[in-house]
Write a structure and sequence with these properties.
With 251 residues, the protein is of the alpha/beta class. The protein is built from 8 helices and 14 strands. The strands form 2 sheets. It has a 7-stranded mixed β-sheet. Strands 7-8-9-10-11-12-13 form a 7-stranded mixed β-sheet. Strand 5, helix 4 and strand 6 form a beta-alpha-beta unit.
């Protein structure tokens, strides 16, 4: 698998980081995990052919994770996309997509076939040669999903937005790469919504991924990046990277 971080930022505007998004490439098929503002622009920067996009997974319906979906939809329409796009998301994904089509962008309705699949908390789906396992994230009252993407004996986990969660921890155990949010510094975040560096350090200690990439980074976390990375890896020696837009790795 080839994985590219398309967006590693938050809702705070940042000239170096757009909102959340990850590109997964395998066997000539492209999958996007979250598609916040700016992600479509980053996708084009990778040189990827948008007509090769097979599926989109949306973790939850906060705008910084889904606001570029309809721009992508229109791009597919204009590019002559000639098959169904697979859209995965939480239980209300059908309602969300239908509202966009019926009330906000009716001129786009039906222009590209979309197969919508709501994901329950512990669902597993097959997308080509990739196995997608999900669990519920812990993000306030929001119904969100974390996801583990597997191909043969390799995997990575994307936490999406979450506070420390036993479900996400279980999903992440033994993975090759854990891409986990780290939005706030310690002592500056509300409980039950996001993850701070010391909390992520404990997750890494228990899950034991081979590599950890911190993402969904606020400007404050970015400006303290070296200290944050040290905190996250302090008890395990795990390879820690602060995610950046267009960072690419193979699994």
């Amino acid at each position: 698998m080839k994985i590219t971080l398309l967006g590693t930022g938050t809702s705070y505007p940042d000239p170096e980081r757009v909102q959340s998004g990850i590109l997964v490439e395998q066997d000539g098929r492209l999958m996007i995990l979250d598609i916040g503002s700016g992600v479509l622009h980053r996708l084009v920067q990778t040189g990827a052919d948008v007509k090769s996009i097979d599926s989109v997974f949306i973790s939850h319906f906060h705008v910084d994770h889904c606001s570029d979906f309809m721009p992508l939809y229109q791009t597919l329409m204009m590019s002559g996309y000639d098959r169904s796009l697979h859209l995965f998301g939480p239980l209300t994904v059908n309602e969300w997509f239908n509202t966009l089509n019926d009330r906000i962008y009716p001129y786009l309705k039906g222009r590209v076939p979309v197969e919508v699949t709501p994901l329950k908390e512990l669902d597993t789906v097959q997308v080509g040669s990739l196995t997608i396992r999900c669990c519920k994230s812990k993000h306030g009252t929001v119904d969100g999903r974390a996801v583990r993407v597997e191909h043969k004996d390799h995997s990575f986990v994307y936490s999406s937005d979450t506070a420390p969660s036993s479900d996400v921890l279980g999903l992440a155990k033994g993975t090759d790469v854990l891409i986990h949010e780290c939005m706030w510094l310690d002592g500056k975040h509300p409980e039950g919504v996001h993850t701070a560096p010391s909390e992520l350090a404990r997750i890494v200690e228990l899950a034991r991924p081979k590599r950890i990439i911190a993402s969904h980074l606020s400007p404050e976390v970015v400006s303290n990046g070296s200290r944050v990375a040290t905190i996250i890896g302090q008890n395990t020696g795990t390879d820690v990277a602060m995610g950046r837009d267009l960072m690419t790795f193979m699994i």
